[in-house]
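Input record (one chain):
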Amino acid sequence: MAENPTTGTTASTTNKVVREPTGIPGLDEALKGGFPDKNIILITGTPGAGKTTFAMQSLVFGAKSGEKSIYFTLEESVEDVIDQFSMFDGTSISKLVQDGMLKIVSIPLVDYDSLKDTLTNEIESMGAKRVVIDSITYLQLFFSDVMSIRRAIIEVAAMIKSKGCLGMFVGEMSYGDPKLSSFGVEEFAADGVIALYLLEKNAAFIRAMRIIKMRKTDHITKYIPIEITDKGIVTHPNEELFAEI
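The corresponding structure, as predicted from the sequence alone:
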């Protein structure tokens, strides 16, 4: 199979995969063109690394581009989410909500079946094309063992993909823990994993991103420097973080 001399990717990965722009400056380049269509992406990281910002930024981009987008929060109120992300790149979150392009849904943590029904009904009624669940780790409240949690994540992922959506699950990593997720199973249920880090150097923290895996596409695997600005996350895939990484 012929290799593309410019990108180093094969024809099968560059020509046949339908792409969705991420909405994160620089990330499409790192992914050789954007998220593969209908993928489930785990956005994981330590507290303060920018996971929720990443997810909402991608949703807002989709909404501005004509893709109805829905954000499910399992820990905050709708009002708190809107206040936290009142503006993105000059775009009013409230205006997108009023126009019916973005919906924010706070899901009561009653039981798993109720959560699943809410996800399905809201996605279908809106006709959403981009979906965020923040945070997927709250499934632990409904199950007593890791394998049941894994089955539930796989089931939710399959439902979102069956609706033709790009899905993003927000996960959690602990400081100093080598695991990519709370239970060590979330990354196996996802098509792609993007990890956000706060790395310490010279008594200061540096923000970084790493694409751990992404099915159906080639991608950069090194640590990528990132910054969080008043317009959201910006990645710098052509820059080096520091020599020892």
